[in-house]
Design goal:
Elements: E1 4-9, H1 15-21, E2 30-35, H2 37-45, E3 51-55, E4 66-75, E5 82-86, E6 95-98, H3 104-117, E7 122-125, E8 139-144, H4 146-152, E9 157-160, H5 161-169, E10 173-180, H6 186-200, H7 203-209, H8 217-224, E11 226-228, H9 231-245
Parallel strand pairs: 1-2, 1-3, 6-7, 6-8
Antiparallel strand pairs: 3-10, 4-10, 4-11, 5-8, 5-9
Helix pairs in contact: 1-6, 3-5
């Protein structure tokens, strides 16, 4: 039987979910293909993978989709690795560079700026890492993933998107979910879910095995990230899709 192609994201926040996928009993059934979030979404759209950890903002673009299992990249509040970074207060920001690696975070940022913060800066799409050099003066930048921890050491003002969403809605937030464009076998999804759950039981082991000195990974995995796609997160996901769909 051919392996199921699974698009994964090579960020620190995915390590607990990938722990079980790299081990028995599922590792022989999957082929893991890694890239950054928006690229994984493109691979799913173009049928280069069967299942992917994709930004949830992409869901409305899919003619058919199935959320696989009960795990995601989510937060109950402050996410720490998704933020708008600036050298000046929010009201003084004139231009914002948007992270090319993200779709959900860009959608969330646009919603926050328009509906909650009441600012209307010039928005600039990016294609590579060079944009982070432009985060200075009245020019801000959205940075996600591991690079956000580097930016936290540089920028004066940090507006955490997960925390801001929580302030408005009182809900958690889902940045990415496991999604397929065709229904996958139920027995595979059950095994896949079990594999996702396995890493959450080995957080200390994952932290010990990961060399990273910019942030406390135990705090990141246990406090900032919330992996279970529970009812509150499903409600938050539905709300988010509704608000970005209104634009």
């Amino acid at each position: 039987m051919s392996k199921i192609r699974v698009g994964i994201v090579n960020y620190l926040n995915t390590k607990p979910l990938l722990y079980g996928l790299e081990r028995q009993p599922i590792c022989d059934q999957v082929e893991l293909v890694g890239d950054y979030p928006s690229r994984v979404a493109e691979m799913l759209i173009h049928d280069e993978i069967d299942l992917g950890l994709i930004p949830v903002a992409v869901l409305p673009q899919l003619p058919e989709y199935h959320i696989a299992g009960n795990y995601c990249i989510g937060t109950e509040g402050e996410i720490a690795s998704v933020a708008l970074f600036s050298e000046v207060p929010m009201t003084e920001i004139k231009k914002v560079y948007l992270d090319y690696q993200s779709r959900t975070s860009v959608g969330l940022l646009k919603y926050l700026m328009k509906e909650y913060w009441g600012i209307n800066p010039e928005l600039v799409e990016t294609e590579n890492e060079n944009y982070r050099k432009e985060i200075k003066g009245t020019t801000a930048g959205l940075v996600i993933g591991d690079r956000a921890f580097e930016q936290r050491k540089i920028s004066t003002f940090i507006y955490d998107l997960g925390a801001e969403w929580r302030k408005i809605t009182g809900l958690p937030f889902v940045f990415a979910a496991w999604v397929s464009t065709k229904k996958l076998p139920d027995d595979f999804i059950q095994l896949f879910d079990q594999a996702n759950a396995l890493g959450l039981q080995h957080i200390d082991e994952i932290v010990t095995a990961t060399s990273f000195d910019l942030y406390d990974l135990k705090k990141y995995y246990s406090l900032h990230l919330s992996y279970r796609l529970d009812e509150a997160k499903r409600k938050a996901l539905e709300l988010f899709l509704n608000v970005i769909g209104d634009k």
